[in-house]
Amino acid sequence: MFLSEKGELMKWISKNNKKPILLFSMIIIVIAGLLDLKYEGLFFRILPESIQQNLSTFFNK
After folding, report:
1. pLDDT at position 45, please?
2. In this structure, are residues 29 and 8 in contact, taking their beta carbons and an 8 Å threshold?
3. Residue 13 burial (10 A CB sphere; 0-12, 13-18, 19+)
4. Helices 49-59 and 18-38 meet at what angle, rounded to 10?
5. Looking at residue 17, what is its pLDDT?
6. By CB neighbour count within 10 A (0-12 exposed, 13-18 middle, 19+ buried), where does 55 fall?
7. 34 near 40, Cβ under 8 Å?
8. Residue 21 · residue 13 · CB < 8 Å
9. What does the pLDDT look like over 7-56, one tens digit per residue?
10. Residue 31 CA: distances (Å) to CA of 15, 25, 26, 34
11. Is the CA virtual torsion 38, 41, 42, 45 positive or negative?
């Protein structure tokens, strides 16, 4: 559909569809971050131990 010609997708995005795509991307990033904290993923392990303990008690309630 949008990939019929070279660069059609980029033209479609650049015309008027930046805001919905940006909003969708931000929502996905926030959800991924929350899931990482809940299931103690990579970002969670980088945090200091005191913050990890606080988050563990918060998510385990």
Report:
1. 95
2. no
3. middle
4. 100
5. 75
6. middle
7. no
8. yes
9. 777 777 777 778 888 899 999 999 999 999 999 999 999 999 999 999 99
10. 27, 10, 9, 5
11. positive
Domain hosting residue 17, numbered range: 1-60
Residues 6+ apart with CB under 8 A from 46: none
Contact 32, 41 (CB under 8 A): no
What is the distance, to the nearest Å, from the Cα of residue 10 to the centroid of all Cα atoms in its chain? Answer: 21
In one-letter notation, the amino acid at residue 7 is: G
How many domains does the chain divide into?
A: 1
In the DSSP assignment, the letter for residue 2 is T
Instruction: Name which of 42, 41, 34 is nearest 59 in CA terms.
Output: 34
